[in-house]
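Budget justification, computational time. The allocation requested in the original proposal was used primarily to generate structure tokens for proteins on the priority list. As evidence of use, we reproduce two of the resulting records. The first is shown immediately below.
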Amino acid sequence: MKLTIYTKPCITEKDRIMANTALDINLDFERMCDMLKTEFKDVVCSQKLGIVKINWKGKTILIFKSGKVSIRKAESEDDAIKTLETVSKTLKVADK
């Protein structure tokens, strides 16, 4: 999977970064939430807003129904990529 990841300094945490990318997948929101809740402990889904929030290993991961993914508080670009790969494995299952 080849992704373009945009990074910038994290606003809330010094020495951390925020990374954004867009996945080319068509997500079934309800199924995505169910799948993520089986893989991660701290998952909040808002069907109304079309956003999933995951707190995992000190990072905040936001997944939008559109496929946009935002990873906040990552230690480095490599950390953001590894986090995205972990989340992507679950999201592929929820892909329509």
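The second record produced under the same allocation is shown here.
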Amino acid sequence: MAANPREFRYGTTKIPIDCNASIAYPAAMSMTLTIRNLDAGVKQKLRLRAASHQRSMEAEARAILATSLAESVTDSDREIAKIEQRKRIESVIGIWQDQMGGKTTDEIMHELRGDD
């Protein structure tokens, strides 16, 4: 039986290949990252840190990248959420002031309660 030229076999799994792509990277395959011109001091620190965690330098570099990016995404998400929340509050404040004749919240509450 001839293999389908539009699919890639990874073990027993058949993975479709985009025939329009110049290079097909099946999702099941891992990616390789090469870091050139790494300072000798940085390399030594990575080697020592990896040894202290009983990992290879490659595994240590993956852990450092994953931790660093997870933290930065979280910080970034928090900032974005703060900005969006502030925009929502400002939009409501604008509507509130327009509909209530520029009165403050305290003034409106006094009116609603009938406070003197």
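A brief technical remark on that second record: Strands lie at 7-10, 13-16.
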